[in-house]
């Protein structure tokens, strides 16, 4: 099979026949003899003291094997769960996260005890009989109130609720001084529940004679779990095997170790019986880490000709009750707030806030959807303010193809791009000019069409060891691979990345097939078992598997070719440099008719006729440490019609032109975009984790937590441009998160565009019908107010207040005070109105 | 997501089901399609001591028209109502409503009797029942629909009383049901039904209070010659809906007015 034939081929995913016909191996397919089942007793309170746990009645229940609380794991589990320093250098308050708390619960659903029984049903029944006496404490639920020194604390023993407070760049004043126009907005990122189709599940089996643990769990990075959980159990790597089989979705929520991941193996060790636990859907929504949960206060300065000058952004990140293992990574939203545009200055500050909610942690995009959403919203707001087409403002400020490698405001080096080309292509496909005319016509008839642009960029492919090792606590996020060619020419590849839906078995085989010149169907990809293959794998997240893991596979394959070439040269009795490798065949320059297939060479590699001093075998291990991150980009355009009477949004068209560099398999890229765009639309229109003021979850089922289905998706038109990455030899970037990064901005920009004649300038997510209706109502009221005061020569109509009822009430802007150092008081917005978001009128320089 | 333990018995006749319910006592529940009850049990929000499964009682599944009345057996499934030529001829609005209940799985399993006995204010059939003066026939008596839906999840059904049949009048005039929701398979945030009959318009509303609502004020206004727009302004008269995660009370009242107007205008 010729090189370059498989790379770029649009072939079906080889894993799908297995997965869609019942041949997958998910956690529910794994059973061990004599298995017991765990059910966790969880706090009904967001914050409470544990006075007493009384398991006496439950112990009498049928089938109960054991009931454990925190004390029972003394000597079995040590240390708190890990918190990676991530990209935040300074931590202010980092609470320890014990697998089970002893005396204080800090979020609803936190496990306090576990029942182990002979069956799942008996465990569930007995769990209901464990009596826990709680003393409820005030719950910290609101970000702004949490920063007030007088606020109750999310942990009673901690001095404040500030997880971190970090200024990246402090100064953008010069650009604001130069500005002719400034705009300001508060951009909200609601909490999202990742909701994988397969909920979390963990099974553990302790082998007392070998002193070793086997852990099966639904996870994106089994090697990290081995490191963390094995460490807590006091087990070295070679006594701890973690198997993460087929995984039914992760979206970032299956990276970190959870309390159950510690408790289940610890219980198995104590009981010397296998223990299994599978999360219910409600538990998944309640206690699997959430995504997003942020507030951004953003100001943009520019010139009337459309030039962007400066930005000031402050991120308030709802960390939850504990800082998620990789929760602080989401602060990267600050570093990417400038998007694909040139800015003179960006000032950015991130403040992590502890609340009595489950932790936030990476969720598809992790910081980059937030960055894209805020910058794409702000560019639109700026464009409207100066009366310029939003596409024109983007084009005026894009980093240009000739500028790459481009060092952006925070010192990150963007590797390659052609932003204008993807926007032009998207505009052409969607028929932008024509749509603007239709929009104009429609408005005359009372129809509100909106066109929303999102010209997204992304940093991914984590990442260079020098940049990532400090962020993880010492482990550089490089990637490793082992490639073994067997004597008859079949190939096994072990990768340290993990596939939980990404199609690695297909994509990686395509790379190996082309590199080795061995048929695609002779290649097998193995992942997800720390007992096999590479010494350490780094897992799958942050769109890294191809750009880092795929490169390691390619390098290991290349090492195999290099060795085979030496063997072939020896057979040909030719100098190695005279041997040509082409499409799986070796030949000596000038004698292309005398060929040896790589499979023949493989057989020889296990024989006796090797070059002198060469070891037998044909296999290689490679580690790839990427020299930089990769930077995919693209342009999404969403067309909506909003029913101003009901607030209902109908998506009419969705065009996405994306550029992830060279493409290995276009079908997989499209699949990633379909799913990613769906998740972005989900945030824009449907999903939101809602808590009551007392900390109770109000969206504990999929009836209330509204994930959209195929029914709610607009027709998607996908296209691409190809700007190879100079960062790696494959020229590839990442695409796993792109759709999610781009989509929310495109949808919300379209809705705002549609409703702009009615005075709407910004809408929060999810843009549900009731929220839009309420906003339109408030605006109508606002307009009446305007007409009344217009007589008195008020210069400019204000936007309607953005928020109304108590449920949607949000804090005003925080004063740029010294929160981290002094625990300083949060100030209401500049209009002095504590019950509303920032008012806009006085925020605009005319 | 594992229900609490419960007794289970399968009845082969209404008589037997009634006796079993009597035997199991107050905490027993009837199991028909199970698409409301079983999720509640899995969340342990419902913990019945026993389930009496009536899905084997074949004689409770039928659709017939007699003397200007449409009789539908309680175990008739949504999909059967949706596909029934008889219903399309005799009460097409009911077939339309059935086509929008839940998703395919719900429609293949769920029954009209189950929806009515469950008496969820967001159910669609109860609205049609109240609006059209349907009768709900049990093994013991006949209930007028307006007296049957007493409160949220509350009916006059006795412990051993089983919904057997729903009797609708035939209505073939212009009609429309608008079910406003965020996702195709969701319950109605608000639903509005309009049916033109020989005696004038009938207007019904879903999920604007603890029980289905017949919007008499709108019907009267239309009867007095008001335009749909004018008449629909009365759709929220007297309503006091509770707010929920999808909608505030004000929004529900607003939707009641807007959807009522549209249902009347779009009736055909």
Describe this structure in words.
The complex is a heterodimer of chains A (846) and B (268). In chain A, 28% of the residues lie in helices and 22% in strands. Chain A has 846 residues and is of the alpha+beta class. In chain A, the strands form seven sheets. Chain A has a seven-stranded mixed beta sheet, sandwiched between helices. A five-stranded mixed beta sheet of chain A has the order 7-15-14-13-8. A four-stranded mixed beta sheet of chain A has the order 18-26-27-28, with helices on both faces. Among the domains of chain A are: 16-22 and 479-624, Aldehyde oxidase/xanthine dehydrogenase, molybdopterin binding domain (Aldehyde Oxidoreductase, domain 4), CATH 3.30.365; 404-465 and 628-797, Aldehyde oxidase/xanthine dehydrogenase, molybdopterin binding domain (Aldehyde Oxidoreductase, domain 4), CATH 3.30.365. With 268 residues, chain B is of the alpha+beta class. Chain B folds into three domains: 7-53, Uridine Diphospho-n-acetylenolpyruvylglucosamine Reductase, domain 2 (2-Layer Sandwich), CATH 3.30.43.10; 58-169, Uridine Diphospho-n-acetylenolpyruvylglucosamine Reductase, domain 3 (2-Layer Sandwich), CATH 3.30.465.10; 175-266, Enolase-like, domain 1, CATH 3.30.390. Chain B contains twelve helices and twelve strands. Chain B has helices at 14-24, 37-42, 78-83, 85-90, 92-99, 104-109, 112-118, 125-131, 145-148, 216-223, 228-232, 249-266, and strands spanning 7-10, 28-31, 50-53, 63-66, 69-73, 135-138, 142-144, 163-169, 175-180, 190-197, 200-206, 213-214. Chain B has a five-stranded antiparallel beta sheet with strand order 4-5-8-6-7. A four-stranded antiparallel beta sheet of chain B has the order 9-10-11-12, sandwiched between helices. In chain B, strands 1-3-2 form a three-stranded parallel beta sheet, with helices on one face. The longest helix of chain B is centred in the last third of the chain and has 18 residues, at 249-266. Chain B is globular and about 55 Å long. The termini of chain B are far apart. The mean pLDDT of chain B is 96.
């Amino acid at each position: 099979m010729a090189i370059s034939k498989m790379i770029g081929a649009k072939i079906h995913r080889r894993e799908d026949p297995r997965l869609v016909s019942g041949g997958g191996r998910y956690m529910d397919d794994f059973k061990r003899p004599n298995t017991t089942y765990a059910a966790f007793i969880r706090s009904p309170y967001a914050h409470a003291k544990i006075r007493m746990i009384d398991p006496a009645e439950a112990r009498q229940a049928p089938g109960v094997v054991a009931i454990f609380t925190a004390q029972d794991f003394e000597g079995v589990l040590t240390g708190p769960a890990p918190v990676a320093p991530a990209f935040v250098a300074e931590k202010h308050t980092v609470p320890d996260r014990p697998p089970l708390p002893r005396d204080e619960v800090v979020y609803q659903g936190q496990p306090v005890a576990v029942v182990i029984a002979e069956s799942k049903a008996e465990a569930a029944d007995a769990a209901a009989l464990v009596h826990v006496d709680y003393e409820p404490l005030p719950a910290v639920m609101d970000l702004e109130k949490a920063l007030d020194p007088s606020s109750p604390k999310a942990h009673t023993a901690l001095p404040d609720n500030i997880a971190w407070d970090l200024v990246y760049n402090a100064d953008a004043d010069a650009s604001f001084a130069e500005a002719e126009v400034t705009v300001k907005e508060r951009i909200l990122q609601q909490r999202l529940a990742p909701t994988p189709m397969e909920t979390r599940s963990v099974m553990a089996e302790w082998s007392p004679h070998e002193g070793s643990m086997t852990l099966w769990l639904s996870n994106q990075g089994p090697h990290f779990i081995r490191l963390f959980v094995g460490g807590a159990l006091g087990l070295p790597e070679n006594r701890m095997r973690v198997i993460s089989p087929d995984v039914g979705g992760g979206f970032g929520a299956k990276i970190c170790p959870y309390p159950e991941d510690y408790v289940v193996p610890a219980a198995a060790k104590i009981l010397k019986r296998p223990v299994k636990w599978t999360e219910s859907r409600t538990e998944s929504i309640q206690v699997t880490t959430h995504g997003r949960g942020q507030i951004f206060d953003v100001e943009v300065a520019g010139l009337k000709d459309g030039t962007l000058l400066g930005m000031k952004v402050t991120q308030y990140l709802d960390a939850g009750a504990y800082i998620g293992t990789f929760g602080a990574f989401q602060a990267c939203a600050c570093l990417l707030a400038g998007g694909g545009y040139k800015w003179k200055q960006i000032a950015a500050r991130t403040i992590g806030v502890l609340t009595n909610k489950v932790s936030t942690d990476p969720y598809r995009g992790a910081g980059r959807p937030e960055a894209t959403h805020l910058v794409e919203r702000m560019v639109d707001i700026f464009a409207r303010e100066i009366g310029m087409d939003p596409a024109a403002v983007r084009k005026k400020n894009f980093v240009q193809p000739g500028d790459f490698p481009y060092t952006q405001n925070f010192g990150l080096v963007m590797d390659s791009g052609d932003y204008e080309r993807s926007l032009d292509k998207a505009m052409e496909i969607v028929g932008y000019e024509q749509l603007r005319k239709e929009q104009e016509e429609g408005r005359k008839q009372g129809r509100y069409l909106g066109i929303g642009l999102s010209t997204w960029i992304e940093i991914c492919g984590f990442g260079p060891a020098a940049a990532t090792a400090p962020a993880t606590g010492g482990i550089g996020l490089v990637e490793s691979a082992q490639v073994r060619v067997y004597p008859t020419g079949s190939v096994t590849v072990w990768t340290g990345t993990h596939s939980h839906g990404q199609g690695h078995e297909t994509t990686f085989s395509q790379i190996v097939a082309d590199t080795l010149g061995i048929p695609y169907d002779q290649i097998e990809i193995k992942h997800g078992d720390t007992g096999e293959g590479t010494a350490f794998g780094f897992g799958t997240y942050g769109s890294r598997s191809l750009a880092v893991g795929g490169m390691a596979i390619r390098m290991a394959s290349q090492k195999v070719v290099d060795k085979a070439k030496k063997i072939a040269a020896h057979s040909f009795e030719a100098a190695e440099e005279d041997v040509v490798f082409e499409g799986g065949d070796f030949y000596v320059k000038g004698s292309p008719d005398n060929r040896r297939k790589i499979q023949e060479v493989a057989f020889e590699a296990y024989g006796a006729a090797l070059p002198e001093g060469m070891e037998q075998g044909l296999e290689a291990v490679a580690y790839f440490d990427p020299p930089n991150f990769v930077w995919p980009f693209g342009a999404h355009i969403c067309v909506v019609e909003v029913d101003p009477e009901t607030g209902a949004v109908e998506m009419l068209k969705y065009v996405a032109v994306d550029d992830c560099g060279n493409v290995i398999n276009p079908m997989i890229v499209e699949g990633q975009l379909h799913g990613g765009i769906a998740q972005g639309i989900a945030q824009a229109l449907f999903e939101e984790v809602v808590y009551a003021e007392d900390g109770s979850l109000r969206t504990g089922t999929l009836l209330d937590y509204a994930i959209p289905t195929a029914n709610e998706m607009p027709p998607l038109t996908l296209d691409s441009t190809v700007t190879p990455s100079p960062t790696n030899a494959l020229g590839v970037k990442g695409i796993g998160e792109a759709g999610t990064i781009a989509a929310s901005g495109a949808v919300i920009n379209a809705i705002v565009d549609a409703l702009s004649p009615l005075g709407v300038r910004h809408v929060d997510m999810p843009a549900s019908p009731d929220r839009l209706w309420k906003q339109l109502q408030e605006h109508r009221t606002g307009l009446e107010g305007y007409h009344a005061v217009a007589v008195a020569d008020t210069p400019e109509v204000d936007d309607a207040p953005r928020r109304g009822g108590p449920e949607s009430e949000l804090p005003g802007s925080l004063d740029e005070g010294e929160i981290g150092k002094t625990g300083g008081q949060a100030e209401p917005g500049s209009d002095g109105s504590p019950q509303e978001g920032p008012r806009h009128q006085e925020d605009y320089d005319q | 997501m594992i229900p609490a333990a419960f007794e289970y018995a399968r009845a082969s006749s209404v008589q037997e089901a009634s006796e079993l319910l009597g035997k199991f006592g107050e905490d027993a529940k009837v199991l028909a399609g199970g698409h409301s009850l079983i999720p509640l049990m899995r969340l342990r929000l419902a913990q019945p001591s026993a389930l009496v499964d009536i899905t084997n009682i074949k004689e409770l599944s039928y659709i017939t028209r007699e003397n200007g009345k449409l009789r539908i057996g309680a175990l008739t499934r949504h999909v059967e109502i949706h596909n029934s030529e008889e219903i399309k001829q005799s009460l097409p609005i009911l077939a339309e409503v059935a086509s929008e209940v839940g998703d395919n799985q719900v429609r293949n399993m769920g029954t009209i009797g189950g929806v009515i006995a469950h008496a969820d204010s967001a159910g669609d059939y109860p609205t049609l029942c109240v609006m059209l003066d349907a009768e709900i026939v049990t093994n013991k008596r006949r209930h007028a629909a307006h007296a049957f839906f007493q409160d949220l999840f509350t009916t006059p059904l006795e412990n051993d009383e089983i919904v057997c049949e729903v009797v609708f009048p035939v209505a073939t005039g212009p009609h429309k049901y608008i079910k406003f929701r965020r996702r195709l398979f969701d319950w109605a945030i608000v639903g509005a039904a309009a049916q033109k009959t020989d005696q004038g318009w009938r207007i019904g509303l879903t999920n604007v209070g603890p029980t289905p609502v017949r919007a008499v004020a709108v019907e009267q206004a239309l009867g007095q010659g008001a335009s749909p727009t004018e008449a629909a302004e009365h759709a929220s008269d007297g309503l006091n809906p509770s707010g929920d995660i999808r909608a505030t009370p004000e929004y529900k009242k607003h939707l009641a007015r807007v959807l009522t107007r549209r249902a009347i205008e779009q009736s055909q």
